[in-house]
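Researcher: Last one for today. Full complex below.
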Amino acid sequence: MQPETPARLRKLRGAAPAQRHNARTVAALTGNPGCARRAVLDAAGIDKDALARKIGHPAKFGQSQFAITRGNAFEAQVKANGYAELLRLLRETLGLEIEEVGSKDLNEVAGNDSQELRHIRARQALEAAVNGHEPLTFLDHPLLRLDVGGNDVYLEPDLVAFHHDGVMHVVEIKSFAIIDDQADGGKVAAAARQSAVYVLALRKLLGDDRVSHDVVLVCPKDFSNQPTAVKIDVRKQLITLDHQLSRLARIDTLVGQLPEDLSLELDTHTPQELVDALSRMEARYEPTCLNSCEMAYFCRSEASGCTSALGATVREELGGIEYVARALDLAHGKTVPSVEEVEATAMLQATARIYRSVAA
Amino acid sequence: MSAISSYARALAAGDGRAYPIASRRHLHLSDHPLVFIPLTMAGEANAPLAAMIGTDRDSPSLLVVPQPRNRDLRFAFAAELAGHVLRYVEDRPRHGVETYGKEARTRYLDAPQMLVPNGAGVGFVKLFGRSTRFRRTTGQYAVTPEVPLLGRWLTWFAERAEHPGCSTLVAMTSELSQHWASGQSALEDANLAAQLAWIDPPAGSDAAQAAREAEDPMIWPPSGPSTDPTFDNAVLAPAIRRYDEGQHERALAVLERELRTQLEPTWRLMWQAYDLLRALPAGDTVESRWATDRTEFTGHHIYVGGGGLPQARRDGAVAAARRLQRLEREQQEYDATRALDDPMVMANFRVTGEAFTGTVVSVEPDRRVVSAKGRRVLRPLVVVRTSDPVRLVAQTTVRSPARPSQDATIIDISGELVTLQIENGMGRGATAATGSLPIAGDDLTYTSIFPDGIRSPELPSVDDTPWTHGGPPQPYTPSDDDAREVWE
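Model: Here's the assembly. Have a good evening.
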């Protein structure tokens, strides 16, 4: 990273404390790697939820306290009594010959550790474990670091790692149910993507051969609270993640294109000023953003009139024309196509003519 | 998605109103559908929170679980739901039976039809069926006999719903998007209120604006099964806490009032959607697909009545392969028959070049050719002028929806002219029977898409399941383990 970039990002954020990254936000970032707006906002640690609310387009995925309660209770149950339940699962369900020798919670102490310090502590403990210097089986809440678009981010450590034969494994505890050995495909895919983020961060720390690509997913079994465990191979997700992270436009370049004095400080700007500032950062809205990004409703209103707002396939089937109005004008012969649009226009006109012939 | 539906979406976005992509209704709609709107508690595995159910739009029944984490209360809900569903299912055979087919089998004249708001509603039916069908009526954790029976029927509904063209369990948003293109994305169409705002906006309001408002859970509560997190935190959690503290009556009164206000808007939307679809004339093949539904219902009704076992947790390899094959065949049939029934659906195949519509410009009715057997046979030629982008090739067999039993072969395509040779369906005389041939000036559509094209490979019998697929499976019998499974 260029030396001035952190300062620029701090200036963009203003006095508010930086939002932390977690595996979910990194995974979401790679879901739409072309979105410069999200890349900059995340790199600067801006509270997107508060920002979206201030400009009048609040995100609509609040969390129900029932879901939080259930998630926390399940996690606590799996980790209770010195990880007894988790140990049983690893032994019985996955058939690992694993011995409980010790564990370490690397969560922050009294809240006054700096992130840097916690990260160093986590690294030391993880290295001690894989090198056999210290008899540790479970390491909880290690604070990991990952390079996202040229910017080092700390990952909120929602994970347990366990050590087996010199190799670390990631355990992901989720509260969605596995019913008759089947679970919601979308949720499993999301869990696999998040685990891949942890595996990647651990590998950066310990080396590729010291961290397994098999992660352990722990979920409630059927309709009960009893946990069950499955192994998931995240090699595919790792390749995608690594590829997309390296492909992310370098944050230096993105920040370099913004005006020097640009600021998104919530307390000192009017909503209109914030919207103007946001319009300097190019967004790439697609409907799936609504499920994953706090800014989605703002970007959607901004993208109104674009064919991509109707979905990627719709845009493709409209010949890749960017705006709905232009696609319709071309289809109805009201405007002259450019050279690149000739082929799409022929298809659009045929579609329009056939539709007209059958519409009452 | 298709070029036609994408174009219609663009039109809708440009004009601020939905555009039709079907001119006929392609599903059966019962006179007395069972409308069912389930709600679940966030975070739990399909734990019922409430439901609105009924066949009468003016008097729905409200079911509420005051503490969804309580196992006994869940089973009380299951028993109450069973009362509604089983009564409805058992009423169907009372409408009488008919005989059909060469072997003169019998089937009921009516079958149940359950309408849920969206795909997630179908998911609820499936999982709730799974969580109740193995329950035992004796011993530990005993439930009333209706509960496992409900589970088997819900499982049947959910399994049937995977079959293309099935009308016994219908997700409203999916059916609406089969008939209308809105000006928003498919993802946003999964919200029933927003989708209906595009199709049938409130009088005097802008569809796009109404659709945005419909996304606000304060104005339009979600159509379930997930509830609005803000509602969970602000309303539901305090009421449930009050119930836990022992103030049962007061808590229940609050919950019933609040959950009713969450469910009633969706209840009205369900009937609005029903009326919209019902206003469309049914496609010609809707009746025969409904007959398949009735046959399936009859079979399962008799099986359950005869004490058959509940559906297994998992299919065996051969059964799964057979099922997949059937689903593929049904999908192909469903797509083809819908196109033959409805020129707006056929338009999709015209855009892709698998069908064309045009005007007959000339007919050579007396043309004869020498057949393979050496006889001179009648094979008239018909030339059709079309401006559709035809991508069929010579020697392809095509048929017209207007003349479904007459095959034609494409002889030549040059520019806008397609030359067809009529193969059959002209009567037995030396010349073609009157009216059996198209005449100049006729507007006709021809397509290579037929409902009867697919041939499936043979599958082994269950006893011959190859070792690669685990060998012959153990015959399924429900075990005590199935029944004892904790549900809390």
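The first strand of chain A starts at residue 103 and ends at 105. Residues 312-359 of chain A form one domain.
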